[in-house]
Amino acid sequence: MYLKYYADPDESEYRLLLERKLSDDENLRNSVCEILEDVRTRGDDALREYEERFDSCRLDSFYVSEDEFDEAEALVPQRLKDAIEIAYRNILAFHEVQKPQGECVETMNGVRCWRKIVPVSRVGLYVPGGTAPLFSTVLMLAIPARAAGCGSLTLATPAKEERVNPAVLYAARRCGVDNVLKLGGAQAIAAMAYGTQTIKKVDKIFGPGNRYVTFAKSIISSFCAIDMLAGPSEVMVVCDASSDPVYVACDLLSQAEHGRDSQVILMIRAEDEKEAEKIYGKVEAALDDQIAILGRHEYMLPSLSHSCAIAVHDDDKLMRIVNEYAPEHLILNCRNYRSLASRVESAGSVFLGPYSPESAGDYASGTNHTLPTSAWARSSSGVSLDSFIKKITMQELTEEGLRSLSDAVVTMAEAEDLMAHSQAVKVRLK
């Protein structure tokens, strides 16, 4: 048994089942705080020491050179380059149509208000390099940043033996990244947030990472903007008797292989308990078959150990659980997936029908894979072009407009005992 099975739990039971097991390690917190402060005060010297300690890298320069970019491009197989190109075009197409046009309204005669759309000037992108080289994250962050018109893109990613993964560098060059730093972990976040003798500080930092990176982002967020605090990866798969159990099993495992702390939830929509147990048995058998032929068991099996399968017998309860959990990824692989999709209120990204695996969105369909986890989808969205822009409100009043508005402004200001606000209007209309 890979997934613990729960038959039609009541509300108090399923709330406990859906609770994320988030750790709060005081030693980790203290370690990250020490790293951030050390980089802030000592800059480059601290970075060199941390890179040697954590990544066994002795760096003469933190920046990837043009020669290294050229070498990387030569090492990437053409088939992978072609795949990256397809993903690049689809991601760009989806994000370019998100460009806002701004708006302008005359709220009353002579009072005109509008918003100016401005890209974030200096952007920092973090790309993990731990258990897998996530070159796809380069595409997901750099493409919308460039589409938004950001002025400067700096990417930080861990190096191994002083070298960055070739596919990461190829993707970075293809997306127009200005600089790639051979830096990982909390020290990379500190370098981009505070700046050092050789690294310019950025205005906003994007990208996922391990617990050290996530906690570093939470600390520097009072000093430098961030995209979101991303926790462990997660997926919720909704299936019924019509679903192919192999499809379901593969979707669960594709998320479980991300890491030991990833979580997968199987929602079984069945008419009765007998049908639910039959579906569950088929998915368990498919999981067994797929695990036998796949690798990364050291990540999959721990992930499955704190995941579960929940059977329910009506759509209302199903959707209450879906929206309560607010999954990073939601796969609706069931007969009535379209009608259920209309009832989704909280999810990072939704995949509809039997031929929409989460893998498509992770790589190349066009949507972004940098998504809210840990139930943040109840109140926030994933990365989009909007994440890379600012909207500045502007207004222009004519004398007639100010005169029309003056009585309301003066009355409200004086009611709040803010007489200088009132005077700023009165002096203009004498």
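[next item in queue]
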Amino acid sequence: MCAAPIAACASVEAAGDELTVALGGDWRITGPRPAWEELRAGREPQRVTVRVGGVGKWDSSLLLFLFEVQQWCRMAGAYFDGEALPEKLRTMLGQLARSHETSVPFDRSQSFMETVGTATLQIWQKGREIAYFVGECTLSLVKLARQPHKFRWRDCLHEMQQCGAMALPIVSLISFLVGMTLAYTGALVLRQYGGDIYVADLVGVAMAREMGALMTAIVLAGRTGAAYAAHLGNMKANEEIDALSTLGISPVDFLVAPRLLALTLMMPLLSLYACCVGIVGGMAVAWSVLDILPVAFWVEMLTIVDLSDVLSGLVKAVTFGVIVGLAGCLRGLQADRSAAGVGQAATSAVVTAILFIIVADAVYAVVFDILGI
């Protein structure tokens, strides 16, 4: 004969401002379960600790009870201590909480120093994850240099087409408009001093050194970086990446390296193309607004723009390409195994890429100024 199931039960122990809840029995959605309001009995604890050592079989009934306790803690500003819960249960509780996100305030019972310490540990952990991923990608590229015949060149060529040739229309439009905007802005100031011709210098230097690479990188961060994150995040949700690892195939070698190499190779070419299109946009404004002929515009621009300006822009473009590729692939591999996780990974990839692009551009500005480039 089968033993009769033990009904779900809970005991409460109060110690000062802390309330310890010990759960036991079998928690089934078809059976009765304790109510949190009855267990609390009007008390207003500052800390609630939950232990499930005596729980037998359980289903969503236990999860709903814990969610009810956690939500009350958020509303009351109390600290919910679920460290004693099994890892699987904590994961499911976190997913349930994220799916029911509202304007409920977060826990504020932690002290300032504890909050700062927790944030510091999270930043340190994220930094380690980024460093580890960059190291894996570096080793993968070293392996490519040593054994190029084992690299998936077909995938790389496909990605080069997607992030290069397919991006030409949007890059052309953005670059042309940026060149026009620079020319209009420069004309507002320079024409007051009779220096209309120097609009060519402004547009040429700005596009070659800064705007060509920067605008192309931002466009690809929103277009290609997000696509990488969404694709890899969807593969992770479908357990395709786990299948590769089970077969002994490195996801970095199989999925990340072709995308990273393709973006690194195509980014300088797109940046150079964007510079040319931007200069044409500025030339069109100079001709139509300032009555500067294209030949005069071109000759004046060549007096200030030299090879160092072009090379500095290409160096930035290569760096930005690496950043966009790393950010997209990293966030894709870190995505949660859900549709919402894929969307969050794509958003995070764009934000991360743009942040590091701006930081890298500022660093290059300082370094180039020190070197006199």
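[queue empty]
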